[in-house]
Amino acid sequence: MPRSESVSFVINNVAYVGTGRNPAALSTNNVYGDFYALDPSKTGSGWSPVTPMPTAAGVRYGAVAFAINNKGYVCGGYGYVGSSTNSTYLSDVWEYTPSTSGGTWQKVASLPTPLSGAVAGNIGNVGLVGCGFDGTSNTNIFYQFDGTKWSTLTNTYPGQPRSGAMSFVVNNQLYVVGGTNNNVAATEVYAYNTSTGWTLKRYLRNVSNSTESYDYSAVSRSLGVGFTVNDKGYVAVGSSTLTTCYEYNPLDDTWTLKNPFLGSARNSAVGFGIGNYGYVGLGYSGTTRLSDFYRFAPNDAQE
Q1: SS (H, E, C) 143-193
Q2: Are 89 and 116 within 8 A, CB to CB?
Q3: pLDDT, tens only, 176-218
Q4: Is residue 24 pLDDT above 70, yes or no?
Q5: Residue 134 domain-assigned?
Q6: Residue range of the domain that includes 270
Q7: Rounded CA separation 82/121 (Å)
Q8: What radius of gyration do the chain's Cα atoms show?
Q9: Helix (H, G, I), strand (E, B), or coil: what is residue 206?
Q10: pLDDT digits (tens, 9 = 90+) for 161-170
Q11: pLDDT class for 1, splitting at 50, 70, 90?
Q12: Is residue 71 a contact partner of residue 58, using CB atoms and an 8 Å limit?
């Protein structure tokens, strides 16, 4: 079903994709809580429906998700709680446990504050959620989840508040890329690990000085997707008109242009990596919500 602002997480090389909205006009009928699994090892399309989020969870879009301990977590967003017809910013968190019968959901500890348009990822068995819009303004606060409870990250994120950013995890480091704050593009990139906290990486700008010269301004974007394949990070689509895809190498802090996304330019898609491939799909182009998905092979020759 066409949709945008959905979530995805990966458990044991199976991707789970769900929630979202279609079309632009909001109602409980066009905001979703259903979920589908993609197993690339299966023949055919590989997609199959799994247990939707329960009635108590309502329906939502603009949430974020991550996976730890072989469970998926859907956090926050904007939507309708339970049977309510009044939309609101959400802080609740729902845990998904996969099974051959479709899986089960249960509510766990909520985020300390509502968040929509945030970023998320995991380092080991700890989930991280931060930035986004809290119902009043953009924020730069990050929270960590140990499978039971949430706590504010003691290493304060040094970047400006933002929403619509992208994230990926490479070698136990969470990278936060792009986004906007008050319609101004955020061009700094920060990486977080549990040992050293946050580290500033090269800016997404045209930089030329006495020590280095590079132009990564084309990487900067909002409402794109971030994903990981093997030991590289990727950002693709976003900013309404972009189909470009860039590869990040953490060994030398460089970005390389890769083959473009084959579908139409779009915002608020989902992206994830499984094995040696990335997958990007859904989202919106203009007022049209999309349902198509594409597989990305990072090692294919540059066209």
Answers
A1: EEECCCCEEECCCCCCCCCEECCEEEEECCEEEEECCEECCEECCCEEEEE
A2: yes
A3: 999 999 999 999 999 999 999 999 999 999 999 988 999 999 9
A4: no
A5: yes
A6: 7-296
A7: 27
A8: 18
A9: strand
A10: 999 999 999 9
A11: confident
A12: no
User: What CATH number has the domain bearing residue 229?
Assistant: 2.120.10.80
Residue 274 lies in a domain: yes
State both tokens at 13: 């090389």
Q: Is residue 199 packed enough to be buried (19+ CB in 10 Å), middle (13-18) or exposed (0-12)?
A: middle
Q: Is the peptide bond before 23 cis (omega within 30 degrees of 0)?
A: yes
Share of the chain above pLDDT 70, in %: 99
| Domains of the chain: total | 1
Contact in structure between 244 and 263 (CB atoms under 8 Å): no
Q: Which of the two residues, 302 and 1, has the higher pLDDT score?
A: 1
- Residue 124: inside a domain, yes or no? yes
User: Three-class SS of residue 247?
Assistant: strand
Parallel, antiparallel, or unpaired: how do β-strands 288-289 and 284-285 relate? antiparallel
The answer to the question of residue 197 being in a domain is yes
- HEC secondary structure over 92-134: EEEEEECCCCCCEEEEECCCCCCCECCEEEEECCEEEEECCEC
